[in-house]
Amino acid sequence: MTVDTRPSGRAADALRPVRLTRRYTKHAEGSVLIEFGDTKVICTASIEEKVPPFLRGKGQGWLTAEYGMLPRSTHSRMDREAAKGKQSGRTQEIQRLIGRSLRAAFDLNAFGERTLHLDCDVIQADGGTRTAAITGAMVAAYDAFAVLVERQLISAIPLKHFVAAISVGVYRGVPVLDLDYLEDSGCDTDMNVVMTDAGHFIEVQGTAEGEAFDRVTMNQMLDLAQAGIENLNRMQKEALGLAQ
Amino acid sequence: MTVDTRPSGRAADALRPVRLTRRYTKHAEGSVLIEFGDTKVICTASIEEKVPPFLRGKGQGWLTAEYGMLPRSTHSRMDREAAKGKQSGRTQEIQRLIGRSLRAAFDLNAFGERTLHLDCDVIQADGGTRTAAITGAMVAAYDAFAVLVERQLISAIPLKHFVAAISVGVYRGVPVLDLDYLEDSGCDTDMNVVMTDAGHFIEVQGTAEGEAFDRVTMNQMLDLAQAGIENLNRMQKEALGLAQ
Amino acid sequence: MTVDTRPSGRAADALRPVRLTRRYTKHAEGSVLIEFGDTKVICTASIEEKVPPFLRGKGQGWLTAEYGMLPRSTHSRMDREAAKGKQSGRTQEIQRLIGRSLRAAFDLNAFGERTLHLDCDVIQADGGTRTAAITGAMVAAYDAFAVLVERQLISAIPLKHFVAAISVGVYRGVPVLDLDYLEDSGCDTDMNVVMTDAGHFIEVQGTAEGEAFDRVTMNQMLDLAQAGIENLNRMQKEALGLAQ
Amino acid sequence: MTVDTRPSGRAADALRPVRLTRRYTKHAEGSVLIEFGDTKVICTASIEEKVPPFLRGKGQGWLTAEYGMLPRSTHSRMDREAAKGKQSGRTQEIQRLIGRSLRAAFDLNAFGERTLHLDCDVIQADGGTRTAAITGAMVAAYDAFAVLVERQLISAIPLKHFVAAISVGVYRGVPVLDLDYLEDSGCDTDMNVVMTDAGHFIEVQGTAEGEAFDRVTMNQMLDLAQAGIENLNRMQKEALGLAQ
Amino acid sequence: MTVDTRPSGRAADALRPVRLTRRYTKHAEGSVLIEFGDTKVICTASIEEKVPPFLRGKGQGWLTAEYGMLPRSTHSRMDREAAKGKQSGRTQEIQRLIGRSLRAAFDLNAFGERTLHLDCDVIQADGGTRTAAITGAMVAAYDAFAVLVERQLISAIPLKHFVAAISVGVYRGVPVLDLDYLEDSGCDTDMNVVMTDAGHFIEVQGTAEGEAFDRVTMNQMLDLAQAGIENLNRMQKEALGLAQ
Amino acid sequence: MTVDTRPSGRAADALRPVRLTRRYTKHAEGSVLIEFGDTKVICTASIEEKVPPFLRGKGQGWLTAEYGMLPRSTHSRMDREAAKGKQSGRTQEIQRLIGRSLRAAFDLNAFGERTLHLDCDVIQADGGTRTAAITGAMVAAYDAFAVLVERQLISAIPLKHFVAAISVGVYRGVPVLDLDYLEDSGCDTDMNVVMTDAGHFIEVQGTAEGEAFDRVTMNQMLDLAQAGIENLNRMQKEALGLAQ
């Protein structure tokens, strides 16, 4: 299955080159630079020895995520959210998505009254920043839990599933995987899919930006996403040196 | 297909009683009270004779939506967002969804440099407020455009499709339609679906709150949603007195 | 005493039709829709089992109020305060007035360390929203305290006085009662009066918008207000099914 | 008429010593330090050569007021509003009152498309800051308009009336004039009255803080206020060197 | 050493007339009006019987400062920071400088778990407001600590050094002391220096506004500052009635 | 001159290894990663084809800077400023310093009505982030102006001086150059110096954090800074491939 007109020249079912660099910065318990082609996101995982007020005393942990873009990570400079004094609706939507996705990856009852803070900061954007963020944050979170194991604060990594995310869309009538910026801005439909390594869905968020899409197209997109996420799960495990 | 354990006692594929009351308040060009069972949302559509700065001079219209809940529309009182000085991430996510959904319903190039403001305010909440809001806002927007036709400012309602929305979920292992609050808080998966009256998708937003869900379940949920939305489209047209 | 030129056609001392609908929404301990003609305000009373920090441990209760208008409750759409991120000076002034007025109605030492939150949300505005809000909130608060009695948490409703409010003004030189929007925007003087059912004043707030007013006019306005409030007190008690 | 128990030892109808110091600071077109006993407020009037957007092109002027308290103008230090990032409801209420009162003093159609900004900053508080602010701002505004006359930008001061304000209250059952802090915090009723030098009312704001008050008391308070304001008007004119 | 062209006519090494008025307002433990020529700043020192959270239980005190300008303390009216809802970067920079400078003057371990709040409010600005604020706050803080001694809460004033501040600059090529507004707006370099009465530096903040400055000029400016601060320290002690 | 006890083991006058990586991200006109040892800052320079309102129509350009830290660039995670809704005083102080420093490097009258936005984002912090930011932003700004030359929008880079910055301090009694985090948190005095390649001062900001420092120490620190900045200027030019 190929698309001659795909701006990136990729096959419809091809991911961009993916790179996962662990220990990218030195302070965080987990720190990963993830690259989906020209999209580059720093994902750090920080452990805090307390939980938010609504969970205190319940013996349970918490995991939360924040997302940001450097002002000139994008083609034209965006205003800095800290200077404007508020996060955009898009930013909040994305960080809520990252948080929900990663909470599905780990057992919140198995790491004590601690909070794992995930910070996903885009240093260069070329489409798919939220899916790169989820995929990279999975590895950073794993590394942070490994630190807790190493410090003998918990006995095992509280893993439920490996979780990864990818975008799919309909570009010039053809369903394609992992849209870059050019493809994303020209596509009719954009769907972000988050799945586990068992092939189950955590999140599906599809939006018809131009024409509404039918059930057949939906199924084709889900097929592409599932295959793409299997690949990403494999790369996450390789990066972590885990036997498959 | 029935579910004995569904708290509402409804069949798995049954909507709650739906009521659409047009001209609910007197000032707005379109004003609809929509009820999905005990969920009650006031949807008003207001016409403004200008567009936001990014569209000025392009001869195109705009449509945008805001969403709010009265502090005691819910079981326990929530803080008032105006008093806190900011809208929650959830509020912003919902109003962005309503806006995108309704922009798919109308032709933005066919009503001049005007903005249609949709305000969806929940006065009583019992699950499904965002889907009720989209379904009611469709009717309010239609009424507002009819005012423009009546005033001879445009020649026809710039309709592309009727759009409606419904939630589906998995409750005790069974896919069910139109979750009320009790069902929603106990379900494993929650999906909001927005479709046109041609049976195409505008938005699909599914979240696994407990267990991740598989492809079979996804398909069952989409089937339920499609049937439910057909019903809602019919009710919208009846409310507007349109021949089918 | 009649005024030929009064836009509403009402006699100078005539209230608009008043309707009080109790149990208007289902979650709040007290929930009242109050209508002064076309002005419609939802007043809910919510009980919280704690007091603000400055009262903790003093064995005393608290009562506070918030006020809002739906964006299209008015003739032209107003910006949503939650979206702007702040309440206007007018909103704050009104909610402070409602709070002070209702704190005069009840004995704060007679319902334990609890807070009664009054939320007054205008769904349709046609003048007099603050006076309708006070008059309706009185009934909602009464109902909420009745719930506390029913739950045997307090032995009696901590009532000091029934409290109601009405506006008076000078329209085309003639003092008139209960101004609607048209009258209000054309009047010279606007005064809001809050009184007890013993005929005493809780609040008097008069503003000369055009010409300053003299002492004779002031006395005429206070006479009108007193008679109007006696009527409102009677309707409040009827709505609550109280023997007079 | 005397009150033995009045903490200040003043007669019931006695003002505190009043001092008006013109040209208190050097930059503002009008700058007055007003003292009501230990209450000290700096009132400046600044002319800006434009009007707010809603008045542009209408050939009309505008007058607006802001109010603030130095953090340690009060007995205990208050938080600085600029540091908290918002003005309290009380601050907004007071500055709206000052603005309305002074707009009644001048003819907004008689000084061109200019804005007069009144800034009333309390440097020491001992009760009655808002009434001192209004009374002092009247003189500062007069001086600022005199500058416009001197610069030959307008032909005459656009004066409608002299306006002054005073508080009255019920202290230990007796109506008294011009409450200081000790009296204010112990009184049952507090009323602020703004009047013209023709003896007409601009604003009346009375609040029963303890017991509701009756019509007789109201009349006694209004009598006290009227006499007090006559005195203040005389002092304003003396300070300005105006023949009476 | 004289400068013919200095707008103020002062010698290059001459301070403006300095006046320190203690007990300027009545509520604060320390309250000083400091005047550097036409620059007038009210400095109050308020004692709070607790420390910020990060210091609780450490047996140590804290000292912090806030700075503000009345809107018309300046030549043209500035927006009120409380109304804008945020302090400017300049304001924050200045209040951080005042706080650091005064924390160097006192032993934070010698006055218990208390906070000294310094509020420096400019009522008239003519250049050098931050240096006047530091110099005046020193005296206000001393007075506030004297109150603690008098109340027998501490045994001695926790003084480390007397601290004062002055500006120096290069005006038309000549280094000069204590710039007023006219000199400041026309100068090439502006440096604020904070020193102890032992002749040591607490803060040096120099900025080349036009031409960068060389080492020789830097030394000349430091010489001027040192001599000026010796004078200010003497005046501070005189004002406090301390034997030298 | 060596210091045995310097935690980094460096000589007192030794910089950390400095690396300048140009074209670090792809969208910005200038994009530099600068490393001072473990301190890593991304500096981007973005050209906008307009100036702020206060400069419009004056034929002059503008240059402004913003600064941020990724939440986990530091040893413990800091709150994200965008999520808190405001920039700290420290952040504002630093970005104002960067802006002033770089405005001294270029001729604002020589690049038309354009704004150069400098964004300095710390991805890893180990002391000296503001000095690294200034030094890196100089190179990014140079690259951005080179783009304007290349596009034939200006005829030459509007360079006045090369500007660089370094910190100096007193660690265990010895003046040292370029403090890392460990040294910075333990030092008595911290001074940031910004100089031109002509050896002149742009900014000097010294703070005694423990003991006040004397004139001799000040001179020693300035000597160290001057030598360090000469080195940095050389590296900047090398990175840009400029003949010296």
Automatic annotation (TrEMBL), chains A, B, C, D, E, F:
Question: Is the keyword Lipid biosynthesis assigned to this protein?
Answer: no
Q: Which residues bind phosphate?
A: 90, 128-130
Q: Which reaction does it catalyse?
A: tRNA(n+1) + phosphate = tRNA(n) + a ribonucleoside 5'-diphosphate
For this protein, the record's Pfam families field holds: RNase_PH (PF01138), RNase_PH_C (PF03725)
Q: GO biological process: what's one of them?
A: tRNA processing
**Enzyme Commission (EC) number:** 2.7.7.56
For the Exoribonuclease phosphorolytic domain, which residue ranges apply?
Answer: 15-144, 161-227
The entry's keywords: Nucleotidyltransferase, RNA-binding, rRNA processing, Transferase, tRNA processing, tRNA-binding
EC primary class: transferase
GO MF assignments: 3'-5'-RNA exonuclease activity; tRNA binding; tRNA nucleotidyltransferase activity
Concerning InterPro entries, the annotation shows: ExoRNase_PH_dom1, ExoRNase_PH_dom2, ExoRNase_PH_dom2_sf, PNPase/RNase_PH_dom_sf, Ribosomal_Su5_D2-typ_SF, RNase_PH, RNase_PH_bac-type, RNase_PH_CS
Similarity comment: family membership: Belongs to the RNase PH family.
What does the UniProt function comment say about this protein?
A: Phosphorolytic 3'-5' exoribonuclease that plays an important role in tRNA 3'-end maturation. Removes nucleotide residues following the 3'-CCA terminus of tRNAs; can also add nucleotides to the ends of RNA molecules by using nucleoside diphosphates as substrates, but this may not be physiologically important. Probably plays a role in initiation of 16S rRNA degradation (leading to ribosome degradation) during starvation.
Q: Which NCBIfam families match?
A: RNasePH
Assembly information from the UniProt record: Homohexameric ring arranged as a trimer of dimers.
The UniProt entry, under PANTHER family, shows:
EXOSOME COMPLEX COMPONENT (PTHR11953), EXOSOME COMPLEX COMPONENT RRP41 (PTHR11953:SF0)
Q: What is this protein called?
A: Ribonuclease PH
Which gene codes for it? rph
